[in-house]
Write a structure and sequence with these properties.
It is built from 27 helices and 27 strands. With 727 residues, it is an alpha/beta fold. It has four domains: 142 residues, Response regulator (Rossmann fold, 3-Layer(aba) Sandwich); 108 residues, Beta-Lactamase (2-Layer Sandwich), CATH 3.30.450.20; 159 residues, Alpha-Beta Plaits; 207 residues, TIM Barrel, CATH 3.20.20. The chain starts with a helix and ends in a 7-residue tail after the last helix. Bound molecules: ligand LFPHGCPZ.
């Protein structure tokens, strides 16, 4: 600071050290006049003190001084760091060479010889002040430079360290990217792939080159998992992140499950620059989970549902069956003497036998039925059936005969038979466990009957089913064995007492079952699809018989044949009626067909068309059991019906029950108003005859007049030609 002040106002600051006052003054005046700022010291001690208080730019130093001489002052100056660079010019005698040598050795920059020459003093002072300044500037410059170099060096060292750390991090990140087992896909903001790792290639089958630049959607399963993909896109856009399960697609087209985590990457300004997805193939994990789930719900040996799953399936089957008005049957099937198979052939073969049986059962049941195994040699089958139990019965028979065949296991021929117990939701319980328990009881009975057999839990059902089965098996060959016969029940005109017609009623006499009533076998014939065949046989028999009566001149009476619902629904029936009449040469006016309300109400429009065609060819129609069903009176108007039959249930108490009387009366009145005739059936007493006659009934049939008679009996009655009212 002081320096700056002196430098501004002078050519420089000089310290003159001289013990001779005259010389000191001379030099001082000379230099002051020349523009220097001059300080003075008369001896060595003051010189050092003055110099230390503020270093001058140059020191003119006398060598010979009392006390501390100039050499000592110079040595001390050079030894003081802040003064060591101050140039020293020694003032000495003219030719004292030793002084010069010693002075230069001590660091002096020059010598000025006494007596002083003003120009020389000024020239040397100017030169060394300038030189000193130049050196100082240089030194300052260098110091600044060194400081800068040091700073820059430190900065570079820091940068190098940072870069090294960055490189280390990048190297680590790259290693993680390369070595991780999870696939990594990086896309740009538009979803175009910009980087993938080796695990990606391993999982997806795509090399990096094949997908770079492609849209990331390429890797997704598409439609198969559209929901997850949309959720992921929305969540990443909204929250910057999404993780969850997706379905992905490999290069070969296979779809596989993946666990994915997707995130946004932003730059320092917060702009989204990339999307990163990390995902793993969880096919195996899923398969393991699936296996665990499967094993907890299935029997390990056969793969069939176990009891837990069976309960679930049963509940579903029962719910559906109830909605559709059906029942559910549970069968317990047990292999007869399975223990002896194990004992004779070993458990290994026993296990295989169970697997073969399991496969057989699974392939034999219908879709929707469930085969289960709870252990041992016992299987359960859940069957959705109708209330007739025909499917259950058919399945039980099929299984029994299917398992009766010889099994070949590991080259061993093994014979197994089975027994089946059946319980039905209608009567035997409505929980799986209850039905299994009851089916097990039935199974026990089946074994008692003699194995290779089935039994129902409810004895009544068991008897019914066995009865049904017997009828079914006998019914098939009944026509061929000539076991059917048509009986005829007279229909009497109440005005004349004459027999004007007859109802044809089928009779079946079977050597095994004896006489089977038609209301027992006709519904089963419908169920087994035999009713058309039987109906055709009846129609042909009746036409053939009428032809005989006509040819014998026994009067041309009308015979009514009953038509089952399945016959009426059959499009071939009307043409068949026509061709049969033609075949036997019987005029259509002698044939009547009896239908019931339920026969026509199934499809009333179709019924109207079929009835019209029958009417067109001349056949008359009777509506049987009138009033017992849910008939619609408006349909009655549309149906081309000739005769209404008052059902026997109203006739029975017509004379004693006012309601029945009212119904009978209404039917008579309704029929007449619609231009129909009325026949009362099941008439058994004279009172009924009188009552109905008095109320205008047209015709009657019933035991009062005659039971149904076979052709010979009826022929005899025809021959009598008597008034049937005279009894
Ligand atoms: N689709 C066909 N159905 C037929 C055929 N043959 C008969 N059936 C139907 O079977 C049901 C039972 O018939 P069935 O046992 O023959 O009984 C009939 C008469 O025997 C009986 N009947 C007549 N009079 C009396 C009587 O005074 N008392 C009394 N207890 N029973 C009597 O009524 C039956 C006649 O019924 P319906 O047909 O309603 O007139 C029966 O529904 C027949 O229709 C056939 O070939 N095909």
């Amino acid at each position: 600071m002081h320096r700056d002040l002196s430098e501004q106002h002078t050519k420089g600051e000089v310290l003159i050290v001289e013990d001779t006052p005259a010389s000191l003054k001379l030099l001082s005046d000379l230099l002051t006049e020349a523009g220097y700022y001059v300080r003075q010291a008369p001896n060595g001690e003051l010189a050092l003190w003055t110099a230390q208080s503020r270093p001058p730019e140059l020191i003119l130093l006398d060598i010979r001084m009392p006390g501390m001489d100039g050499f000592e002052v110079c040595r001390r100056l050079k030894a003081t760091p802040e003064l060591s660079q101050v140039p020293v010019i020694f003032l000495s005698a003219q030719h004292d060479t030793d002084d010069k040598v010693r002075g230069f050795e001590l660091g002096a920059v020059d010598f000025v010889a006494k007596p002083f020459q003003a120009e020389e003093i000024l020239a040397r002072t100017d030169a060394h002040v300038k030189l000193g300044r130049a050196q100082k500037a240089l030194a300052e410059e260098r110091a600044l430079l060194e400081e800068r170099v040091a700073e820059r060096t430190a900065e570079l060292a820091r940068e190098v360290e940072q870069r090294r750390a960055n490189e280390e991090f990048l190297r680590l990140a790259s290693q993680v990217f390369e070595a991780t087992q999870d696939a990594i896909v990086v896309t740009d903001v538009n979803g175009h792939i910009v980087a993938t790792n080796p695990a990606f290639t391993q999982i997806s089958g795509y090399s990096a080159d094949e997908v770079l630049g492609q849209n990331v959607g390429l890797l997704h399963a598409g439609e198969a998992d559209a929901g997850s993909f949309e959720a992921m896109v929305n969540s990443v856009a909204k929250t910057g992140h999404w993780s969850g399960e997706i379905l992905a697609r490999r290069k070969n087209g296979d779809i596989y499950p993946g666990l994915l985590s997707a995130s946004l990457v932003r730059d320092e300004q917060g702009q989204v620059i990339n999307h990163v997805a990390v995902f793993m193939d969880i096919t195996e994990r899923k398969a393991e989970q699936h296996l665990i789930d499967f094993l907890s719900n299935h029997d390990a040996l056969t793969g069939l549902p176990n009891r837990m799953l069976a309960r679930e399936r049963f509940a579903q089957t029962l719910a559906t069956a109830r909605r559709e008005g059906r029942c559910v049957a549970v069968m317990c099937l047990d292999l007869d003497r399975f223990k002896s198979i194990n004992d004779s052939y070993g458990h290994h073969i026993g296990d295989k036998a169970l697997q073969v049986v399991s496969t057989y059962l699974t392939e034999t049941v219908r879709e929707g039925d469930t085969v289960t195994r709870q252990g041992g040699d016992e299987f359960q089958i859940i069957i959705a059936d109708d209330t007739q139990l025909s499917a259950t019965l058919a399945l039980a028979q099929q299984i029994l005969s299917g398992l009766r065949k010889e099994l070949v296991i590991d080259g061993q021929q093994i014979t197994v038979t089975s027994s089946i117990g059946i319980a039905v939701s209608l009567t035997d319980g409505d929980s799986f466990d209850e039905l299994v328990r009851n089916a097990d009881t039935a199974l026990f009975r089946a074994k008692e009957i003699g194995r290779d057999n089935y039994a129902f839990f409810t004895e009544r059902m068991d008897a019914e089913i066995r009865d049904k089965l017997a009828i079914q098996s006998q019914l098939r060959g009944a026509i061929a064995r000539d076991e059917f016969e048509v009986h005829y029940q007279p229909q009497v005109c109440l005005k004349t007492g004459a027999m004007v017609g007859a109802e044809a009623l089928l009779r079946w006499d079977n050597p095994v079952l004896g006489k089977v009533p038609p209301n027992r076998f006709i519904p089963l014939a419908e169920e087994y699809g035999l009713v058309n065949l039987i109906g055709e046989w009846v129609l042909e028999s009746v036409c053939a018989q009428m032809k005989v009566w006509h040819d014998q001149g026994l009067g041309k009476i009308k015979v009514a044949v009953n038509l089952a619902a399945a016959q009426f629904a059959n499009d071939a029936t009307v043409p068949y009626v026509e061709s049969t009449l033609r075949k036997f040469g019987v005029a259509a006016e002698y044939l009547g067909l009896e239908i019931t309300e339920s026969t026509v109400m199934g499809d009333p429009n179709k019924a109207v068309a079929a009835l019209r065609r029958l009417k067109d060819i001349g056949v008359s129609i009777s509506l049987d059991d009138f009033g017992t069903g849910y008939s619609s009176l408006s349909y009655l108007k549309r149906f081309p019906i000739d005769v209404l039959k008052i059902d026997k249930s109203f006739v029975d108490d017509v004379t004693t029950n006012s309601a029945d009387a009212a119904i009978a009366l209404s039917v008579i009145s309704l029929a007449h108003n619609l231009n129909m005739r009325v026949i009362a059936e099941g008439v058994e007493t004279r009172e009924q005859v009188r009552f109905l006659t008095d109320r205008g009934c047209d015709e009657m049939q019933g035991y009062y007049f005659s039971r149904p008679l076979n052709a010979d009996g009826f022929t005899a009655l025809l021959r009598e030609r008597r008034n049937l009212l005279d009894m």
